[in-house]
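Hi R.,

Here's the chain you asked about this morning:
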Amino acid sequence: MQTATPTIISRWRAFSIHLFISIVIGVAVLALMLLLWYPHPLFYAVGGKQILMILLGVDVTLGPLITLTIFDLKKKSLRALKFDLAIIALLQVSALLYGMNVVFQARPAYVVFSKNSFDLVTANELLADDLAKAPARFQSLPLTGPVYTYTEKPKDIKLSNEVVWAALDGKKLFHFPQYYKPYEPHGKKAAKTALPLSDLKAKNPDHAAEIDQAMIESGLSQEEIGYLPLFAKMENMTVLVNKQDGKVIKVLRIDNW
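And the predicted structure, written out as tokens:
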């Protein structure tokens, strides 16, 4: 028993240290996603929860468990053990970098208004060739959270037909950054098509408190706020806008569509 105790303590101590480091890294990744790339509730709109669970499952859980399994000074020399731990660390870092690249590429880039709805566009949905044709301010994808934009079908018949034909392959108008315009000057178009907030409350009595809270925070009355759909990959949501100028008030995790 006297010879076994140090080995057991060493194994669990190594596991605890590895787990602690992995948790710190996991928290940092979560903070980066929620505070910068995937602001709430858009985190859910693009499946951020699923991506995060896979990422943390590999990097926070699997690495420390492997350390716990192989850490046995009775069967391995210290040199061999250090080599094994170095390989685990290398694999874990590689998996983290790969996962972070996936997270970065799948981040929400633009929330695009057209006609009577918003669409959430992720970074990996926009082609480099299209970005090169876009206005200067839209050629580089945003790095600090999604940007609200406005778009409409080009008036040129040839260009308009290109958009129509592209839709057959799943490429829609909001996938053409060359037609993006700043949202603010066109916000009144969103205000004009926005539906009454009273209708949203009537359809979603379970979310009445959440809707009322958003209204209180805005400082506007119920009659001054409208809502529009936000379509996304994983979850459709609702955008509250000022019915005067179309300014975005808040995105709610409510799907009416």
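The chain has three domains: 4-105, 108-182, 186-257.

Let me know if you need anything else.
M.
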